[in-house]
Specification:
Layout lengths: L4 H24 L5 E5 L6 H17 L3 E5 L6 H8 L7 E6 H10 L10 E16 L8 H10 L5 E4 L5 H13 L4 E4 L4 H10 L4 E5 H10 L3 E5 L14 H4 L7 E9 L4 H16 L1 H9 L12 H22 L5
Parallel strand pairs: 1-2, 1-3, 5-6, 5-7
Antiparallel strand pairs: 3-9, 4-7, 4-8, 4-9
Helix pairs in contact: 1-10, 2-10, 4-12
C-alpha cells in the first residue's frame, strides 16, 4: 500500500520531533544523579578504577555520579542488574574482560554480551602480577613453580570467583607449568582475597596491578613477575614473565564503560565525550597510572574501538575457556 502524502508528512514530522526531543534531552543531560554499577565488592581493583573514573566523569558532565557495588557470581549479578536498568543514560556499568568476555562462555546469564549493551569506551588496561603471601619460601618465579610442584596437594591460589581474571590466568598457568594447586574463590572479589593472602590464609594469587601495588609497596605481599612484555613503570623492579622464566605468558585485564541497549545516541555521544575528557585530565591520568593502569590512546577510546576489542577477545578467549573446561559450578 502506498503511503499518502498527508500520512508521509505526519510520519516525517513525528520522526523529526522525536530526534529533536532526544537531542534536547541530551543537551540537558544529566539532570539527576547517574549510577555507575561496579559488579564487584568495595575495595577491589575494579572499585578503585570505578571511583577514579567517576570523579573524572563528574567534572566532565558537571553532574553527580554514584558508584554502586553489586558483587557476586564473578560479576554476573551486577551486570544482570545493569541489564535490567532503564536505557535512559542514568545507569552505567564499569565492565571488564571477565564480565564482558569470559563470563559469556561460562555462565548462563539472561543477557547476551555480544548484543545487549551499548559500548561507550575503554577506560584502562592493566597486566596481572603473580604474587604470594610474604613468608612463602620461593624468591623468584622458577622457585615458585618448583614450590607448587612439591606442594601441589596443599598449595592454594585465591581467585575472584569462577571465570574471573585470576581464575583463568591460574588455570592457564597450571597448563603451562604442569603444576597443581587448589583454587579458593572469593564471592566478594579479589579485594577480599587480598586480605586473606596478606594474613597467610591462602598462598598465592594472580592480581591485577591496581589491587597489588599498594600491598607490594608496603611489603605485605611478595611479587614474582608481571604478565606483560614490559615492566611496570611504577614498580620497575618486578621482572616480566619473559625475564622470570615463563616466556609469552601474557594476560591483561581491561575496564570499559557500557550503557543499556537502546540508550539514545545523543546521550551515548555525550558520555563518550565525557569519558575522553576525563581520560585527558592530568589528575585522573596520574591516579590511574599510580595504580598500574595503562590508558588507551584517544583513537582507542571510541565505542567502535571497544566493539572491536570485544569481538576480538571473544574470538580469542571463548575457545580457550571452553577447551579448559571452565564452568560455573
Amino acid at each position: 500500500m502506498t503511503m499518502s502524502r498527508r500520512a508521509f508528512v505526519k510520519t516525517s514530522a513525528a520522526a523529526s520531533l522525536s530526534v529533536i526531543a532526544a537531542s534536547a534531552k541530551a543537551a540537558a543531560y544529566p539532570t539527576r544523579p547517574i549510577t555507575l554499577i561496579v559488579p564487584y565488592g568495595a575495595g577491589g581493583p575494579t572499585d578503585t578504577i570505578g571511583r577514579i573514573i567517576a570523579e573524572g566523569l563528574r567534572e566532565a558532565l558537571n553532574g553527580t555520579i554514584v558508584v554502586e557495588n553489586v558483587a557476586g557470581a564473578s560479576g554476573t549479578i551486577g551486570v544482570t542488574k545493569f541489564y535490567r536498568s532503564p536505557n535512559d543514560g542514568y545507569t552505567l556499568c564499569l565492565g571488564n574482560w571477565p564480565t564482558f568476555v569470559l563470563n559469556g562462555a561460562i555462565f548462563k546469564a539472561p543477557y547476551d554480551v555480544t548484543k545487549d549493551f551499548e559500548p561507550i569506551g575503554r577506560v584502562v588496561t592493566d597486566p596481572q602480577i603473580i604474587i604470594s603471601r610474604p613468608d612463602l619460601p620461593a624468591n623468584n618465579l622458577k622457585e615458585l613453580i618448583a614450590w607448587f610442584k612439591s606442594n601441589g596437594d596443599k598449595a592454594t591460589q585465591a581467585t575472584g570467583g569462577t571465570g574471573s581474571t585470576s581464575h583463568v590466568a591460574g588455570i592457564l598457568f597450571q597448563h603451562k607449568t604442569d603444576t597443581q594447586f587448589a583454587f579458593v574463590p572469593y564471592r566478594q572479589g579479589v579485594g577480599a582475597a587480598m586480605v586473606d593472602l596478606i594474613a597467610g590464609r591462602v598462598d598465592t594469587m594472580f592480581s591485577v596491578a591496581a589491587n597489588a601495588i599498594p600491598h607490594l609497596k608496603s611489603g605485605a605481599v611478595k611479587a614474582y613477575a608481571v604478565t606483560a612484555k614490559e615492566r611496570l613503570g611504577i614498580m620497575p623492579d618486578i621482572p616480566t614473565v619473559d625475564e622470570a622464566g615463563l616466556p609469552g605468558f601474557y594476560t591483561a585485564n581491561w575496564h570499559a564503560l557500557f550503557a543499556p541497549k537502546g540508550t539514545p545516541k545523543p546521550i551515548l555521544e555525550a558520555l563518550n565525550a565525557a569519558l575522553v575528557t576525563a581520560l585527558a585530565n592530568p589528575d585522573i591520568r596520574k591516579r590511574m597510572e599510580d595504580v598500574g593502569q595503562t590508558l588507551p590512546p584517544k583513537e582507542q577510546q571510541t565505542p567502535q574501538a571497544l566493539t572491536q576489542l570485544l569481538k576480538d577477545d571473544i574470538a580469542t578467549w571463548w575457545p580457550v575457556v571452553k577447551e579448559a573446561g571452565i564452568k560455573n559450578e
